[in-house]
Design goal:
The chain is an alpha+beta fold and 538 residues long. It has 3 domains: 191 residues, Malonyl-CoA decarboxylase, oligemerization domain (Butyryl-CoA Dehydrogenase, subunit A, domain 3, Up-down Bundle), CATH 1.20.140.90; 145 residues, Aminopeptidase (3-Layer(aba) Sandwich); 153 residues, Aminopeptidase, CATH 3.40.630.150. It contains 23 helices and 9 strands. The strands form 2 sheets. It has a 7-stranded mixed β-sheet, with helices on both faces. The protein has a two-stranded antiparallel ribbon with strand order 6-7. β2 and β3 form a beta hairpin. The longest helix has 25 residues.
Length: 538
């Protein structure tokens, strides 16, 4: 862009106290420069104005002047180019043209989209969602015409065919063509990630919010078919697996992050297993990662799983997997499961991976008859702190006596319960370094956590997302474990507590149905007793 032209635009934008749109219109009416022609293009002008008017546009207005405005101009020009490419590709939908030509156009669109800045990606997605969704006007017209006609069976079939075509959003055709490209499926998974990142930024009252949600649903339904369990490959990861896969395994563990290669080697070594799902359209990309410990019993702590401590780990870690002692393997403990692709959120993969891993391992070790998780409780402490804040305001949140000993210990000479001090020691995790507080807090924290897991609900189902996942799979809420994860992460998430969800294979299907249809949670006596010991609503 001509630097004189840029500086003239800059001065107009910087000094005139009128709207951006007015500034642009006023300036471009008197300028006669090559770049001016772009601003006769309404979509381009709109994109440029919106970009410069938004919060993200402030970065171009803070520094002098030409290079930043030049960059803004180019970014918006790229955004407009992507919309032109989109229009060009979708115009081919009903044309007689070779698949080769369509493929090249679609490939160009995908390549260009990858180069866009986030702001332009969002504009592109809004355009795709609003302009190329279902044509409601055409759909209404054909329904109206049908109501006024006396139709025979032949006409009815033609009308049904038209309705079938009109009921499918135009972007569905684009998605299917993208899926045929090399790495096209991965592109769609990443595209859905961008859509999901955009949704929270939108005003739920505006039409574009619904349009984006419909776009999200359409792409999710397509991915659900493409990522059906029959199209997935179960792979066991070992230390001899490709370095690229091992590196991704170490990066993707969201439950218990892997610190270094030594820990990673232990996770795929003796008495440990790591399984992943892969897809032929995304080679070398683990979709879901499951870590399993082979133990003598259902364990109650991370000690001995993620570290080398504990009787089940007192083996020579350099020995081959085949030299494991079968007498030491009675239980399979699923201690970490992580989805690696945000774009596949809402598509059931983890439950199938657990089932496939069990089937794989019981053929290797048929004497293993106990199957359980050792699961985190990721948002318990947040839930608890919110209730302590209400208690600070004088609300009767907890049953009388539950926190008495702790509050007396913390309140010293104060007459009133010091709820603020309790909140402080829990938030700071300082209680864990005080043996007396550890003993005093055990009962109230276990009671509250049992209530959180078993009684607290969201739309009739378990409030805790991890609990909901395993209960839907047919597991039993089997045991709550005190100080099971005393890492900073474990203390911050759940005050160090973890829970076992046990899978009884012969009962899993019935348990799953009972939970999904009747919201019935199968729970052990320990958790049930702790949760019902509360006499007041939390």
């Amino acid at each position: 862009m001509n630097s004189v032209f840029v500086n003239q635009i800059w001065q107009t934008l910087k000094h005139q106290k009128i709207s951006f749109r007015s500034k642009l219109v006023n300036k471009f009416c008197i300028l006669n420069r090559p770049s001016r022609s772009l601003f006769t293009n309404e979509p381009f002008c709109k994109l440029f104005v919106n970009n410069m008017s938004s919060n993200s546009g402030e970065k171009y207005m803070k520094k002098e002047p030409a290079e930043n405005l030049h960059r803004a101009f180019n970014e918006v020009n790229e955004g407009q180019h992507s919309i032109c490419l989109l229009e060009d590709v979708l115009s081919l939908q009903n044309k007689k043209i070779t698949n080769w030509a369509i493929e090249n156009k679609v490939k160009s669109l995908c390549c260009h989209y990858k180069t866009l800045q986030n702001d332009n990606k969002e504009i592109f997605l809004k355009e795709l969602a609003t302009k190329y969704a279902i044509n409601h006007s055409a759909l209404s017209n054909i329904i109206y015409q049908t109501e006024r006609l006396e139709v025979d069976s032949e006409k009815l079939l033609k009308i049904e065919e038209k309705l079938k075509i009109l009921m499918v959003p135009q972007y569905s055709w684009l998605f299917k063509n993208i899926g045929r490209l090399e790495n096209g499926v991965k592109f769609l998974v990443d595209l859905r990630t961008d859509i999901m990142n955009l949704v929270p930024k939108l005003d739920a009252k505006k039409p574009e919010y619904i349009a984006i949600q419909q776009l999200n649903t359409a792409i999710r339904e397509l991915l659900t078919v493409w990522f059906s369990v029959g199209f997935l490959n179960l792979e066991k990861i070992t230390w001899n697996s490709p370095c690229s896969i091992l590196e991704k395994i170490s990066m993707y563990d969201a439950v218990h992050p892997i610190k270094d290669w030594v820990e990673l080697k232990r996770r795929v070594g003796p008495y440990r297993r790591c399984f992943v799902y892969t897809h032929s359209s995304m080679p070398g990309e683990p979709l879901v990662v499951l870590h399993v410990a082979l133990t003598k019993e259902i364990i109650s702590s991370l000690k001995g799983i993620t570290t080398a401590e504990g009787p089940e780990s007192q083996v020579n870690e350099s020995q081959p997997l085949g030299n494991e002692d079968p007498n030491l393997i009675k239980a399979l403990i699923f201690y970490s499961i992580s989805s690696t692709q945000k774009g596949l959120q809402g598509i059931e993969l983890g439950n199938y991976l657990i089932k496939d891993a069990v089937n794989y391992l019981i053929t290797e070790y048929p004497q293993a008859t106990m199957f359980s998780t050792l699961s985190p409780i990721p948002t318990f402490r947040i839930w608890l702190i919110e209730r302590i804040k209400l208690a600070e305001k004088g609300e009767q949140i907890f049953p009388t006596g539950l926190w008495n000993e702790v509050l007396q210990y913390l309140s010293s000479n104060k007459k009133e319960p010091d709820w603020a001090h309790l909140r402080e020691v829990i938030v700071s995790n300082s209680w864990y370094h005080n043996p007396e507080l550890i003993c005093l807090l055990k009962n109230p924290l276990m009671v509250c956590c049992s209530r959180y897991l078993y009684v607290e609900k969201r739309r009739g189902y378990a409030y805790d997302s991890v609990a909901n996942f395993h209960l839907r799979n047919g597991a039993v809420m089997w045991r709550l474990n005190w100080l099971a994860d005393v890492s900073p992460r474990g203390l911050t998430n759940s005050c160090g507590m973890m829970v076992n969800y046990r899978y009884y294979l012969e009962q899993a299907e019935d348990n799953s149905l009972n939970y999904v249809q009747n919201q019935k949670i199968n729970v052990c006596d320990q958790i049930a007793a702790l949760s019902t010991s509360l006499t007041a609503k939390l």
